[in-house]
Amino acid sequence: MEEEQIRETLNAHWHASAVGDVNAEHDIYDDNVICDYPQSGERIVGRSNLQALRSHHPGKPSGFNVKRILGKGNLWITEYTITYQGQPAYTVSIMEFRNGKVVHEIQYFADPFEAPAWRSQWVEQIM
Fold first, then answer.
1. Cβ–Cβ contacts within 10 Å for residue 27, how many?
2. CB of 78 closer than 8 Å to CB of 93
3. Which residue ranges form the domains of the chain, and what is each CATH number?
4. Tens-digit pLDDT profile for residues 62-97
5. Local structure of residue 121 (DSSP, 8 states)
6. SS3 state at 65
7. pLDDT tens-digit readout, 23-62
8. Which of 13, 3, 30, 2 shows the shortest CA–CA distance to 78?
9. Is the separation of the CB atoms in 35 and 48 below 8 Å?
10. Residue ranges of the alpha helices (H) in the chain?
11. What is the distance in angstroms between the CA of the first residue and the CA of the last residue of the chain?
12. What is the pLDDT of residue 113?
């Protein structure tokens, strides 16, 4: 799959995620995809399980913002923010493609934290 096609596929995936179209959101995945959530120690095997899990999430996202997509060949990274019940979750998705579909995804989630005052002389606020 050409890199431009992968980027278009990713854009369609993230758009579908943002608008809550769970069918279109999961078109990107191979039937036997593996999705890992390292922070909770969970592994979801299979597109149908992944779609079911996300479809039953009790706190549907109220905001979704892709910051950037980077990739080359079959490995692509998306940095984005999801807002759940008014709280942002800073997220990184690492996707591995094979034959035009995602066969493995790892998602890392991070909560925001207050910047300590002691380092203010060396930093700028970006948000």
1. 15
2. yes
3. 3-112 (3.10.450.50)
4. 788 999 999 999 999 999 999 988 889 999 999 999
5. G
6. strand
7. 999 999 999 999 999 999 999 999 999 999 988 888 777 7
8. 13
9. no
10. 3-19, 22-25, 47-55
11. 36
12. 86
Nearest one of 79, 89, 96, 77 to 39, comparing CA atoms: 89
Residue among 16, 54, 62, 58 at smallest CA distance from 33: 54
10 Å CB burial of residue 78 (0-12, 13-18, 19+) is buried
- pTM to 2 decimals? 0.90
Which one, of 43, 55, 58, lies nearest residue 17 by Cα?
55
- The pLDDT mean for the chain works out to 92
Residue 53, both tokens: 């899990």
Sort 120 into a burial class: Cβ within 10 Å, 0-12 / 13-18 / 19+: exposed
